[in-house]
Amino acid sequence: MRAIVYDPLAPANLRFAEVDEPAVAESEALIDVQAIALNFGELHFIDHARKPGEIPGWDTAGIVVQAAADGSGPPVGTRVVGLNFGGGWAQRRAIATENLAVLPEFVEFEEAAALPVAAVTALQALRALGPVVGRRVLITGASGGVGRFAVQLAARAGAHVIAAVGSPARGEGLEELGAAEIAVGLDGITEPVFGVLDNVGGPLLAQAFRLVSDGGSVQSIGMASNEPTTINFEEERRTGNRKRLETFMIRTPIGPDLQYLLTLLADGELDPQIGLRDSWDNISTAASALLGRSVAGKAVLRVS
């Protein structure tokens, strides 16, 4: 079958190859892939996560062509979306049924493919902050895939959302998604916040942590800056505030969370914010655009 593989000598480190059909475990369904989504993290750190010839890819939407042998999950012919941390950029892939969700009638494959990593990350990280109704929540890297979902979900949960971006152009459209404030950088933010969803890391994470009030927390989701973070905890202790800094990792199974998000999508209460749509034949161009931060939101590719 045809697949995209990691090749450090290819444009954007990616090329097409003929590969073996995937092995399918008893608790997995085999999916005929119709659409894939690209995530900044899986591209930015691909040289650390993949060996040459391996198939990357987390997010997939498609049709079940072989149901799980253990009887779990949807039957053959069901339209689904799901997540596995590898093997997704191929014509067929296996996914554990606990990480699959069934597409509602009017949800298309491309819209669904945008959800698994980015939207589930935003949902789970927001939950980790605790109740946010009426509280100030700062989202850094708010123009990216995770950030745009986080803005929508935090606003829906009743938070006063502060969306931090790298430039005025990157902030376009965030107010319509629910951001009460849009900040370029954090220097202009002087009032404390209850929680932070940080997608940037580096010095910006340290700066965001200083803004957190007593009892609040930061969820460190990503490291788009590719820079280390240094925090002076002695200085933080002198403020008298007790607050938490937690590393965030998506928790599986994600099936129930993904089904909830699909319901919001089907009801028009969640926008997938797809900034780039194309054929997977143009994977190198799409990957370069996402890494170059010229895509606002998600990059989704049709599989042919």
TrEMBL record:
Keywords: NADP, Oxidoreductase. Coiled coil: none annotated. The keyword NADP applies. It holds the Pfam family ADH_N. This is Zinc-binding oxidoreductase. Residues 9-301 form the Enoyl reductase (ER) domain. GO terms for molecular function: NADPH binding; oxidoreductase activity, acting on NAD(P)H.
